[in-house]
Amino acid sequence: MTEKELIKQVVKKRRKAQEELFERYKRLWYSICLRYHSNTDDANDALQNALVNIFTKIKQFDPDKGNFGSWSSRIVVNENLLLIRKRSRAFVTDELNDEIHVYDESESALDRLSAKELTKLISQMPDGYRTVFNLYVIEGFTHVEIAEMLGISVGTSKSQLYKARTHLQEKLELLIGQG
Amino acid sequence: MEENKYSELDKLFRSRLVNPSDDGDWNVPPGEVFDAALDEINGGNSRRRFLLFLWISLAGLILTISALICWNIRTLGSIDQKMDEILAAQQGEVASQTTEERLPEENTSEVNEIEVQNESANNNGAPATETSGGGNSIDHSQKANSEAGQTPTANIAAIDNKDNRNKEEPFWPIIGPDGQYDSDPAEQENLPVTTAASDSIEAFAGLQSIGLLGFPYFFDPLPYSIDQNSIEHNERDSIVESKKPAVLFAFGPSLSTLNMISDDALPASLTKYDKWYSGYQMQLGLVQKLNKKWDAVYGIEYQRFTNQSEFREEHSYVKANEVTNNQGEQEYMLNLDLLTPIGIHSENMMVPVGNNSISDREEIVHITDMKNRFDVAGLHAGLRYHFIERKALNFYVNGGLAANYFLSVNEQMSTKLYYENRMLKEFVADYSTKGQLGNLFVRGNLGLGMDYRLTSHLNLGLNITGASSLNSIQKPSSVKLHVRQAGALFSATYRF
């Protein structure tokens, strides 16, 4: 069954089609959730909310105009942000620090790092770092957009990103050193 | 500058995480997440409504039982008070007998005469006030006592006794003029049985508490054998003590689901249907005591369960489906597929579109409210086993079978068609789909219940029962559709 046909069946609330669509995209959706939360319970909650939204709003999606993966991923990201806001996680609002540690890349060691390990590194960061890093680096939003989405200043967004990168760089160096 | 420094780091994360590879199960979500999401989409509203309904029912039940218990405690209090009065009268009688022994001969005979007259009147079933010369005799005896310088203890006791007898106190006839109990069988048979039984038990308890069990005649003249068994029966349930059947009326809420248990055998167009139905049930029957622990219950029953759901679908508008009707108007043929308890219901509707310029690929929306209603009648028979008996409360398990018949299976459908937020047309349909179901099904049930003795004639009860059809209600044999139910029945059992 093509994706277009599958979506048509999901719109008609056919259970088997819903299951099939979930099977196709579950890894993508869950990976996003795991990146935004430090524990799997929150990731599960976010995914559940996202699924409800995807299956309810799917009739608004036009297969001829867009890619379902991107469309649904946007919903998943939004649900994660909503959950983070609901949990009232505070963002650290300190300013940028000029002291920058430059990442000394080691291609061979980095190649060995899997998506699972990278996701784990992200999920271990503080909430503010993690959210801004995901939105900026992975989803591709600008600082202005992030500031608007999270209700923070552009400066805070930049600060959080800087700290996230520094944090990740340190963790990566540790990992590579151990490797 | 800073961005460049981190570009490799960003690239690393972006390349690995935007489309994560399928390495291992680390990014496979638990299946429960999907199930929970679908439950929320498909059944969340009806379940919430049911929980609210259940909560209100339970609150009502607790309030009702509390009120009944308070009422009964007050009643028992008044019985205790009455017992005190009766016991005081008994003690007075004993005192009067002692006094008689000390009275001079002439006074004693006069008092005895009064009592004999009173006794005679009561034995004949006539009210004491009609006793010939009764009032005069009393005056006379009081006068005689005064003349003898004695307190009129015996006479007062006799008057009290007479009054009590007029109230038909069941244990009164035990006191005769000679200190022996009165054993006139005709009078005993005229006593109200349940009141007497109830009062005698209360009297028994009262006397036992003050150590007056030494009066063997206290119970003997009564037509009800007050042995240990009958006391236990009375404590459990004075209604079932009798061999006569009691009439049972029960009413309560129920929750049902139509459950397909042979998913694989379903035709392609039929998906599993797992909606919940709420409704009510009522029973009218007889409770027949079989022995101390077992009752048989049989009778007729009726139940109704309904489900209301909303479907919303969007269709791409296809110009080719436009036709011109006899009046020269443009109409659009819309095919609706609706999921119903017994499968997909397809219907073609002609929608007048008039001069609307709807182009291909634009969407036409329909919102359908659907209500399914099942009316079921039946005959039921079952057994109850009483396992806990505590005074006015007793608990039992019950099980049985019911032969059920679908009186009607109705679908009411209201479909509204919208185009660009403007309603084009509303269709209302009300039709029966009874023919698509087997008419008869057998239902097995198991439950747990309690009865509370409110009065000697009336029991109030609550029974929680689960039930399932034993045969499929769907006509095609390949599809097995079963009714599963859970319900609470509030009952009243009355023995005339």
Distance between the termini of chain B: 98 Å
Helix and strand run of chain B:
HHHHHHHHHHEEEEEEEEEEEE
Q: Helix/strand-derived class of chain B?
A: alpha+beta
Shape of chain B: elongated
Total of DSSP H or I helical runs spanning 4+ residues of chain A: 9
Q: Which two chains have the most extensive interface, and how many residues on each? A: A-B, 48 and 39 residues
Mean pLDDT of chain A: 82
Range of strand content of chain A: under 5%
Spatial strand arrangement across the major sheet of chain B: 1-2-3-7-8-10-11-12
| Helix segment tally of chain B | 10
Instruction: Detail the poorly predicted runs of chain B.
Output: 108-240, 262-273
Residue share in helices of chain B?
A: 25-40%
Principal-axis shape of chain A equals: globular
Radius of gyration of chain A: 18 Å
User: For the report, how would you describe the main beta sheet of chain A?
Assistant: none
Unreliable parts of chain A:
92-105
Number of DSSP E strands of chain A = 0
Identify the quaternary structure here.
Answer: heterodimer
Helix and strand composition category of chain A: mainly alpha
What does this structure look like?
The complex is a heterodimer of chains A (179) and B (496). With 179 residues, chain A is mostly helical. Chain A has helices at 3-11, 15-36, 40-57, 68-86, 107-111, 115-123, 127-138, 143-150, 154-178. Chain A has nine helices and no strands. In chain B, helix 4 crosses helix 9 (193-209). By secondary structure, chain B is of the alpha+beta class. The longest helix of chain B is centred in the first third of the chain and has 59 residues, at 44-102. The model of chain B is unreliable at 108-240 and 262-273 (pLDDT under 50).
